[in-house]
Write the structure tokens for this entry.
Amino acid sequence: MKPDANHPPAVCFLLGLPRSGTTLLAHLLQQHPDVMAPPEPWLMLAVEAFGRVDHRHPAGSSLIQDATSEFLGRIDRTIVSRAFADAAYGQYLTAGGKHTLIDKTPRYWMVLDFLDSLYPEAPHILLLRNPYAVAASLKSTWGIPLLPESWPPASLSSLSDLVLSLPPDIASSLADLVLGLPTLAAHPNRRQTEVVRYETLVARPDDEVRRVIAALGHDPTSIASATMGQPDYLRSSRFGDRKILERKAVDGRSLHTWQTDLSMREMQAITDALGAELLIELGYEQELRYVQQAGIVDRGPAVTEQYRQVFRTWWDLRRV
């Protein structure tokens, strides 16, 4: 059965920073008989970047970009992109015999405006987690350095040092925190956005999963309980949190490990880069108070803005 062009596929975007628990939430939601959540499609990132190719392409990357831009400039690129995405999502749903596809790709914070232009009607699920815990997981799971001397200096004049000294994967992970978190912080104001807190999810998984399922328009009683089920589909993929393959139940043991996993200097670096205002806005004032009582200083929004400006410039250079 082919996807029906008159009835576009039901797509929901699950947003959240890497290491914030998006794989866990997607897996729990997929236990519903009408929901499919493949491991991180990254599809919208590729569609948004259509026409931009690696500089080593033998046909010439600038020629390809100029030619496709000229051709697509005469038509509605949004319609073309939506048609491609609908075909991909629709075929995936048809093959799985499900009704709703949840596209869980943490770095969609980079293309939120593009998502809204293509799928303005699509529901979003925004998963928030204590930023200190996210940073601690980046350090312990991916080996991302968080010490001040490992971060780019908070100065625009040192941008060249940033670009030369940071490997792309480390810079991207730090950009997730410095740029991605404030971008997602503004997202709950969007219509059809369900906010889930990781801390609440692991404390009351049944309630949270059923609440989200109901918001997607499905029968929440079709899930008896939020269990780990069979995550074997993740074994054949490079993407998604591999740790849930070892889990037998949802638990909150990781909620407070950041307090011992992070050094004082790392806590200071994270506080400088994120800013006290953002932590309070996201509802993590208690965690901020904890680090301040431990001796961490709020150095003010000017320092945080310097970090953001450095990473914005790095980001712009990467897109050239």
About this structure: The domain at 10-319 is CATH 3.40.50.300 (Rossmann fold). DSSP finds 15 helices and five strands in the chain. The first strand starts at residue 10 and ends at 15. The chain has one domain: 10-319.
